[in-house]
Amino acid sequence: MLQTLHHDIAPIWIGPRGTEAGIRSLRAQDPLFFEGDDAGSLYEVIEGVLRVCKVFSDGRRQIISFAFPGDLIGFGQTDVFSFDCDALTYARVRAIPKSSLLRTALERSELGEKLLAIAANEVNSVQNLSILLCRKSAIERVASFLVYLSKRLGEEAKIVMPMTRADIADYLGLTIETVSRNITKLRGMGVISLPGSGSISIRDMRQLCQIAECDGAMH
Amino acid sequence: MLQTLHHDIAPIWIGPRGTEAGIRSLRAQDPLFFEGDDAGSLYEVIEGVLRVCKVFSDGRRQIISFAFPGDLIGFGQTDVFSFDCDALTYARVRAIPKSSLLRTALERSELGEKLLAIAANEVNSVQNLSILLCRKSAIERVASFLVYLSKRLGEEAKIVMPMTRADIADYLGLTIETVSRNITKLRGMGVISLPGSGSISIRDMRQLCQIAECDGAMH
DNA sequence: CGGGGCCTTGACGGATGTCAATCGCGGTGG
DNA sequence: CCACCGCGATTGACATCCGTCAAGGCCCCG
Fold it and tell me: Of A82, A107, A215, B172, which has the most beta carbons under 10 Å away?
């Protein structure tokens, strides 16, 4: 399911570990790159949350993924990026030149397998997102998203939301209003509460998972 | 968009080219493997069309991809397959043991790049499918699918459909009825015609692409 | 000629999108 | 300190698209 996106893939980048080489700091709303930029590097998120999205000529926007610490951005992009990326919060990322990535992978055979594992993970993530987008109702999507977000942010009861309703909507393939209505509905069911602006508390994770259909079948 | 799925990636598998080693022949409806089977090999399609799909406990089915000659099935699967695969038509596939894949990739550095390119392609395919599933109306999806199918089957005017309406529906995230209605609508618009059972002629590819929103933004 | 898939077509209902009004909160300036 | 403003979120009314259910047609094959 959604909450399995990008899990448990350890960073494999050997490079200049202790140094600050290739580190970029971003404030909230700062762009990391735009669609069409040269994709000579990929990025490993060190801190913060970033947003990867594709904007269409008619204004429609699809958020492809949110990237949390440990995630890779831009893996599998060939010559130029096919999407935009910007920071939702203060964030730090490490740039990984693609050349060094390939060289490292070739020098150390066990890394080749990790590369394949990352590719597999990437593919699985997007497949799971597809299934979510095409087979789940609005409330199931919202519940799935909250479960996913909780896992990615450390399983704490109170989630400080790094993204707006519009971001959630564009990720889940819904409208702002539908997201809002279903968050309200979940609150009415006692599954979550909204302790203050920009945060959500999960009061009944078990039930939230049931609504999200986190049952065995989904992976 | 859709029609860019799996394009222009040449087979990289060196192995016993001229021989018949690892070749499997399938009749229509024959399974290639099931979810949970050992994923020790992936498969390159030589001839025919196969269907990759995931069946859920509640009976819902999501077709993840159709595989045409030149396509790879099972790339990125780790220990066991996470989906079923069967043949829609008579088909031949070449089994590629994963061990030989990794070894080959490591021995020849240019293949590492091809592996990355394949991974990139795979990720892009699924991303495009996500966008289709979550941002397009039914008629846009059907039109996209027909454009995609046409490209994959050699751009001939008359398409002999290898799959049923149910397959199309489960690929596009629609119902059989909605697919049927929109095919009828496209016929009414003069964009396609149905010369006989199991085939479709594209009469106005330009307009079909417009309906599919094959405009520049989509890839 | 009859049967069984598969496909098409119609009627209807419900979930979600659209449009619009309002709320709540934080920032800013008087 | 308070009033105002602006943005995001919420809520409501309504429209629309698509799914559901049901009937019938087409075609292949026995």
Answer: B172
